[in-house]
Amino acid sequence: ELVDQTYIMVKPDGVQRGLVGEIISRFEKKGFKLTGLKLFQCSKELAEEHYKDLKGKSFFPKLIDYITSGPVVCMAWEGVGVVASARKLIGATDPLQAEPGTIRGDLAVQTGRNIVHGSDSPENGKREIGLWFNEAELCQWNPAQAPWLRE
Ligand code: DAT
Ligand code: MG
């Protein structure tokens, strides 16, 4: 199967609320491979590029203010089916609609404070990882548990 990559980010509210470890754990326990991780204060320019498809929406300025309001935790995760699976682990955009058991369903209450981002396609996964990380910040490694996760 094809291995893909997704960009996951704990948003400023997730960092402020002390949910960084909890959110990383969900992906780690599932069995995906972490290939990049950093705490980062992003610029307005980077936030706007990341969310460029939403430029023109009424909530866009507030979204940019929110994402740049404090440090975020940037992550790159890799695995077969990781993009779609991460979206399921994260849950619906509106946390009140997100199923219990998902990150947003368990830990958030409002769309404008939905604590985590996940890429919506393998193409955007690659694009966003390229946007948020330098090549030197990404690690290729062989997790010891690999043969216990996939036959
Ligand atoms: P997702 O983050 O689930 O991929 P999205 O890509 O449609 O959702 O939107 C990106 C972010 O923008 C989302 O996490 C929160 C914000 N947002 C989306 N729709 C919104 C709305 N109707 N009102 C306020 N914020 C919104
Ligand atoms: Mg999205």
TrEMBL record:
Binding site for ATP: K11, F59, R87, T93, R104, N114
Cofactor(s) the record lists: Mg(2+)
Keywords in alphabetical order: ATP-binding, Kinase, Nucleotide-binding, Transferase
Residues annotated as domain Nucleoside diphosphate kinase-like: 3-140
Active-site residues per Swiss-Prot or TrEMBL entry: H117 (pros-phosphohistidine intermediate)
Molecular function in Gene Ontology: nucleoside diphosphate kinase activity
EC number(s) on file: 2.7.4.6
Keyword presence, Kinase: yes
Top-level class of the enzyme under EC nomenclature: transferase
Catalytic activity: a ribonucleoside 5'-diphosphate + ATP = a ribonucleoside 5'-triphosphate + ADP; a 2'-deoxyribonucleoside 5'-diphosphate + ATP = a 2'-deoxyribonucleoside 5'-triphosphate + ADP
Domain of life per record: Eukaryota
Assigned protein family: Belongs to the NDK family.
Descriptive protein name: Nucleoside diphosphate kinase
Native species: Stylosanthes scabra
Residues of the full protein shown: 84 to 234 of 234
